[in-house]
Amino acid sequence: MKPYQKPVHSKDELYSLQGKPGKIAEHKVIHFIDELSSQFLNFSPFVIVSTSNALGECDSSPRGDTPGFTEVLDEQHLLIPERMGNKRADSMRNILENPHIGLLFMIPGLEETLRINGKATIIKDEELLRNHKVKEHIPKVGIVVEVNECFIHCAKAFKRSKLWDPEQWPDLTALPSPAKMMAAHAKLDGHGQEKVQASLKESYRARLY
Question: 156 vs 15, 145, 169, CA distance in Å?
Fold first, then answer.
């Protein structure tokens, strides 16, 4: 067995290596959206949506918009409008097979995040979605999440990564551009780096909403 293939087989073994959670970590989870969490959502312009299909194959996908774009419908439900994308619909297809969902909300400059877990439904309710109209565009569908868990996640990951510290941001000169990576991965005739870059630029300019 290779060194990186030494698996941990049980919760007890994991706790023996990592330790058990403290009292605050163990008791911080609530099962609804309280007023404090609602205020956090009002400031958040960005969320990572985690889903998996019927086989358990996972996907994490970003969603971003103006702060507060995630609407709190009531204490148990929130709505994320689905904006225009590349039409792969990875998250949406997963939800159709498996409703379990995990959400990680971020606020720029704040190192703590808000985690919400629950069950998702894709809705096409125009009355609800009309509240999220931008530039005359009303989303065709949205994700309604029935909240099961809601809690603040500590800042250690952001402190270690220094994600919000511009002085620690790397020089990206040597990094392959996303367009180059997409062209290399797709391997389609007539879709080189320049054409992919032009397509991305046009999409960002004209098809955000």
Answer: 19, 27, 17
Determine the Cα–Cα distance for residues 50 and 136; give it in Å rounded to an integer.
29
Q: What is the mean pLDDT of the chain?
A: 95
For residues 82 and 49, the answer to whether their CB atoms sit within 8 Å is no
Distance CA 57, CA 31 (A): 26
3-state helix, strand, coil in the chain (%, to 5): 35, 25, 40
Angstrom CA distances, 18 to 10, 13, 22, 190, stand at 12, 9, 12, 51
- Residue 63, number of CB atoms within 10 A of its CB: 20
Tell me the pLDDT band of 33, cut-offs 50, 70 and 90.
Answer: very high
Q: Which of 64, 55, 48 is nearest to 116 (CA)?
A: 48
Residue 152 CB neighbours (<10 A):
15
Q: Structure pTM?
A: 0.94
Closest by alpha carbon to 110, among 164, 160, 152, 49? 164
Q: What is the maximum span of the chain, computed from C-alpha positions, in angstroms?
A: 59
